[in-house]
Amino acid sequence: MSTDSLTIRPLGYADLPQVIGIERRAFPTPWSLGMFVLELSKASGVCLAAVSEGRLAGYLICARYSDVWHLMNIAVDPPSRRQGVATALLEEMFERAGHDASYTLEVRPSNAAAIALYERYGFRSAGTRRRYYHDTGEDAVIMWRTAQEASTPSPSG
Length: 157
Description:
By secondary structure, the protein is an alpha+beta fold.
């Protein structure tokens, strides 16, 4: 798969069977169907699908809270990883929600690839949430990106 064949579009309810499949393959503690339905029902959110050759390669859920965007979930189907899918989803999120907006997220400290990607886009560590992940008891790194920290990512990552 190349990013040339990748299309980013709004995520819809009809995508949820594929989303649930990716979610189960991507995470040890997947979101429930109800969690996705709830986020898709919020008019203020940014929910995106990355489609390649007619199938879902990844998705992103970003919710608006007052004056901050919270990146709730981003996943790439394991066979499609390291091919620019997450990068394309993040770039479209910034286009739709605003490059100069403030963003926050939580990420497992063990997920070095995700942390490196977020840092390329100006996210910085701002603390931890103790025992955030119920499956392992692992802490979460809290990351923030503000307009002052926003940057154009380096191609070398």
